[in-house]
């Protein structure tokens, strides 16, 4: 009998242990003597700006001794997978970063705490009003703008000089870009690099004078003649002035390395690349993208509080500091880490006077002609639909018009289902 | 196999001095009901090490996914009841059928390759008398290697412009295909990698089967004048049929569940759509599109497909498997 009892006890213990393990991983660190710990999850800090984020945290903790901030990072490609799994598993970080494209779905799903209460006690006039409004829903402030960035045309000055070509200027057209790219391509050098995908397409569409959605936002209109022109502009590049998908072969950071090795003359990419290009052994600069109608991609990131955060007041305080403190503005400017969304441009005037690149003011041109990405609740499906359609057309499997028509019909369906 | 061992163990226990069967308790002539309860408790205790993980990590999640499959849920928001709506939706979705078609094509390519290859290796090894264990270990090594590692290596070998395979093909004057970047070659690329990795597993099973083929039977056939092919066809193959049946069922199930190699080799690439398989679709629906209800429904559809195919296979086995 006692043998049976012992075994039963051992079994019960094992079950308890298993239950304990499951619970242990789900509970947060306890907060001794009134101190609270705020977990912050981010994609934009790693790998280039972890030290910069640390600097901001140190300053925040010095000003708020009762709060400790712990950082968790994930690369952008895995970030939202991890975040949504953590939310579903009740282990959501107290505070986390979001891009605008994801904000819409998170806001619609009730996954963001309402910050209006804390915000009402606070003066938010430091933020650019438009940025602040972007992250409001039904009058509720669901996130604080954290940073913005723009996509520009990066170019290798040395390659242009060697070919005896004039440098790109702000009033360049698509044709001028293509003509220069053709002359620059050859001898192991590619003239241009612009990926064939959703984000390049929505922008090229705006540059061609087209609209992605109808005015009421209920219908996709990117299969217009302007859409076809935009797609043609993108599809003309691979295989002529830029490597094909097969040549790239899924290699990560292929274009970044190509540019860094001085084998790429023009590169469509974002200002988040500035820090990584600090030490390249050639001269380079940026200019607002060539286009028939000026339109530039501008991306905004925000930070939000999870509805389950233990100490929402402290969480808000941290996000407020992270997004709009002088320390943050200075740190971002010093390290070329995107731009703070502040109302007073003087706060980051120093950013434009440093180089490389010399022509940082191109960012202001881009912001002046900013076009935000089209966003719906079922965002990723829409992005994949458009990218797939472009790939089909690029591979010659479907004519451009038909590929865009099919994609537009699918996107209409996605808008309806959400 | 499992049923047999669990069936014999308790008997062995009864014989031993430490057994806790009905005869061993301090009250030898206890009421029969109590004895029954105690026996059941003992059985449960012995089952616990495999039953508890099975319940916790397989049955409970399965029940959970059945529940989720009846809802609309994006992981970050509240669940909304949709009844069988998700099932109706995914069965109408062309992507589901494309994924099922790709999975079927994968199995159609993978199964013959891995079986014939594994059989060939097993027969070769069966003749080897020295270093058989070494060869067996070497061929088994890929089986226990992480799929991600294997898939990355194959992706590199089959790189259209930089890969060794295409460079070797160029030497003999053949222009290599685009492999995992081309629609036509994406699935074959994955099949080659999968067959290479699983060859060792099939070989080990079939080698065990071959070693059980009685030498007298082969000898008798030889005396009767049967040539090598006839001995293989009429003696070895029929006697190997239980091992063959096992390999086919297991490989077919794992074929329907194929994911890692496809995800690593082609996902997000130019031929992603041409090689999307069922589990990859489940993954994308869940983690990429936040459609966990649809993904769960698709998982259950896949489960039913596998169940159906396996039942049919087992039924058909009665016709061709020789359990002697």
Automatic annotation (TrEMBL), chain A:
Alphabetized UniProt keyword annotations: Cell membrane, Lipoprotein, Membrane, Palmitate, Signal
Q: Which PROSITE patterns match?
A: PROKAR_LIPOPROTEIN
Signal peptide per UniProt: 1-24
Q: Where on the tree of life does the source sit, at the highest rank?
A: Bacteria
Record-given protein name: Sugar ABC transporter substrate-binding protein
- From which source organism is this entry? Sphaerisporangium album
UniProtKB/TrEMBL annotation, chain B:
Q: Where is this region: Disordered?
A: 1-33
Keywords carried by this UniProt record:
Cell membrane, Membrane, Transmembrane, Transmembrane helix, Transport
**GO terms for cellular component:** plasma membrane
Q: Where are the transmembrane segments?
A: 43-70, 105-125, 137-157, 185-208, 239-259, 297-316
Gene3D superfamilies documented for this protein: MetI-like
Q: Which domain of life is it from?
A: Bacteria
The answer to whether keyword Transmembrane helix applies is yes
The ABC transmembrane type-1 domain sits at 100-313
Q: How does the UniProt record describe the way this protein sits in the membrane?
A: Multi-pass membrane protein
Q: Name one GO biological process term.
A: transmembrane transport
Q: Which PANTHER family match?
A: ABC TRANSPORTER PERMEASE PROTEIN (PTHR30193), INNER MEMBRANE ABC TRANSPORTER PERMEASE PROTEIN YCJO (PTHR30193:SF37)
Protein name in the entry: Sugar ABC transporter permease
State the organism of origin: Sphaerisporangium album
């Amino acid at each position: 009998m006692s043998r049976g009892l012992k075994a039963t006890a051992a079994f019960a213990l094992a079950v308890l242990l298993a239950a304990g393990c499951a619970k242990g991983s789900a509970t947060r660190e306890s907060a001794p003597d009134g101190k609270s710990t705020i977990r912050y999850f981010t994609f934009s800090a790693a790998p280039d700006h972890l030290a910069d984020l640390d600097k901001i945290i140190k300053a925040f903790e010095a000003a708020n001794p009762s709060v400790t901030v712990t950082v968790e990072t994930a690369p952008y490609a895995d970030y939202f997978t991890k975040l949504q799994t953590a939310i579903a598993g009740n282990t959501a970080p107290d505070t986390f970063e979001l891009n605008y494209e994801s904000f819409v779905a998170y806001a619609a799903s009730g996954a963001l705490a309402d910050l209006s209460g804390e915000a009402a006690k606070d003066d938010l006039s430091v933020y650019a009003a438009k940025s602040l409004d972007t992250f409001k829903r039904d009058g509720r402030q669901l996130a604080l703008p954290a940073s913005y960035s723009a996509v520009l045309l990066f170019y290798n000055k040395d390659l242009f000089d060697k070919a005896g070509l004039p440098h790109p200027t702000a009033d360049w057209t698509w044709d001028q870009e293509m003509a220069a790219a053709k002359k620059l391509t050859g001898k192991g050098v590619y003239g241009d690099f612009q990926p064939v995908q959703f984000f390049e397409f929505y922008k090229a569409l705006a540059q061609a004078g087209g609209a992605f959605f109808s005015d009421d936002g209920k219908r996709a209109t990117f299969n217009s003649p302007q859409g076809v022109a935009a797609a043609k502009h993108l599809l003309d590049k691979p295989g002529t002035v830029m490597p094909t998908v097969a040549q790239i072969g899924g290699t990560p950071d292929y274009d970044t390395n190509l540019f860094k090795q001085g084998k790429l003359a023009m590169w469509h990419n974002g200002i988040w690349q500035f820090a990584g290009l600090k030490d390249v052994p050639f001269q380079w600069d940026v200019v607002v993208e060539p286009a028939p109608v000026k339109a530039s991609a501008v991306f905004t990131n925000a930070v939000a509080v999870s509805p389950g955060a233990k100490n929402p007041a402290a969480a808000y305080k941290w996000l407020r500091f992270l997004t709009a403190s002088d320390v943050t503005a200075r740190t971002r400017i010093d390290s070329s880490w995107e731009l703070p969304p502040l109302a007073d441009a003087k706060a980051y005037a120093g950013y434009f006077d440093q180089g490389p690149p010399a022509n940082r003011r191109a960012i202001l041109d881009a912001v002046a002609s900013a076009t935000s990405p089209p966003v719906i609740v079922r965002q990723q499906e829409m992005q994949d639909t458009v990218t797939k359609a472009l790939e089909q057309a690029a591979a010659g499997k479907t004519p451009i018009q038909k590929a865009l028509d099919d994609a537009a019909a699918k996107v209409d369906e996605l808008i309806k289902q959400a | 196999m499992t049923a047999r061992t669990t069936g014999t163990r308790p008997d062995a226990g009864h014989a031993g001095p430490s057994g806790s069967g009905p005869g061993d308790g301090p009250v030898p002539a206890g009421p029969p009901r109590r004895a029954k309860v105690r026996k059941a408790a003992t059985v449960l205790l012995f089952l616990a090490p495999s039953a508890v993980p099975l319940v916790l990590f397989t049955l409970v999640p399965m029940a959970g996914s059945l529940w989720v499959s009846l809802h609309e849920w994006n992981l970050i928001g509240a669940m909304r009841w949709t009844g069988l709506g998700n099932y109706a939706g995914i069965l109408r979705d062309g992507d589901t059928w494309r994924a099922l078609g790709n999975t079927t094509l994968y199995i159609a390519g993978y199964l013959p390759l891995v079986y014939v290859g594994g059989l060939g290796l097993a027969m070769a090894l069966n003749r080897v008398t020295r270093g058989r264990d070494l060869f067996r270990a070497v061929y088994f090594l890929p089986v226990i290697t992480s799929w991600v590692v294997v898939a990355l290596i194959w992706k590199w070998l089959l790189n259209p412009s930089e890969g060794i395979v295409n460079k070797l093909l160029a030497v003999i004057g053949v222009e290599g295909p685009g492999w995992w970047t081309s629609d036509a070659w994406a699935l074959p690329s994955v099949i080659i990698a999968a067959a290479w990795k699983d060859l060792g597993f099939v070989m080990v099973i079939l080698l065990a089967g071959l070693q059980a083929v009685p030498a007298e039977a082969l000898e008798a056939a030889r005396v009767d004048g049967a040539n090598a092919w006839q001995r293989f066809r009429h003696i070895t193959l029929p006697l190997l049929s239980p091992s063959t049946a096992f390999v086919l069922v297991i490989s077919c199930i794992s074929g329907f569940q194929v994911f890692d190699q496809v995800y690593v080799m082609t996902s997000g690439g130019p031929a992603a759509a041409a090689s999307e398989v069922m589990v990859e679709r489940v993954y994308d629906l869940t983690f990429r599109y936040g459609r966990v209800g649809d993904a769960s429904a698709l998982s259950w559809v896949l489960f039913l497909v596998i169940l159906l195919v396996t039942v049919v296979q087992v039924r058909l086995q009665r016709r061709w498997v020789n359990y002697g």
